[in-house]
Design brief:
single chain; alpha+beta; about 40% helix
Length: about 160
């Protein structure tokens, strides 16, 4: 993993609290990824083209996660993820604003999987009145599937 956070912070500092309104700031942060902001990312810094892999707890399950991966023109990889349960969820596309860049697709994929697992663990461990045993079971099943997906082996014969 490459930590772009310090460089991003230095750029944002030049534009004060309103950095997120500045097209120049957006362009400078995009340049860290080798991106022309008008072609490869939208006005919010999310990569325009990225692949999505969906992992579901089973047919008809309302527990699933998505892994979002994009390779920047400079060869670095950005990761995003999402997870959904019947009582919670979160989503984040691969963005130039991510402080973490990855040198390989697999490294980015594992980071996105870890992010989904973390969110699902939080959803599983909720103690409010919305929590159900069915939700806990669905989260546990999906967490296990995601952990197994970290070590996905590609076939040499496909």
């Amino acid at each position: 993993m490459i930590d772009l956070g310090p460089q991003q912070d230095a750029i944002k500092e030049k534009y004060s609290k309103d950095y997120y309104h500045s097209p120049q700031c957006l362009a400078e942060v995009a340049a860290l990824w080798g991106i022309d902001i008008n072609q490869e990312a939208n006005q919010h810094g999310v990569f325009k083209d990225y692949e999505t892999e969906t992992i579901s707890a089973g047919a008809g399950s309302r527990h699933y996660a998505e892994i979002h991966l994009a390779q920047a023109p400079n060869g670095l990889w950005a990761a995003g993820s999402s997870y959904v349960t019947p009582i919670s969820g979160a989503a984040c596309g691969p963005s130039i604003w991510s402080p973490h860049a990855y040198e390989s697709r697999q490294e980015a994929r594992n980071a996105a999987i870890d992010s989904s697992i973390q969110g699902l663990e939080h959803a599983r461990n909720r103690t409010d009145s919305c929590q159900t045993q069915s939700n806990i079971d669905g989260c546990n099943k999906l967490i296990q599937l995601l952990q197994n997906a970290r070590y996905q082996q590609l076939s040499l014969f496909d």
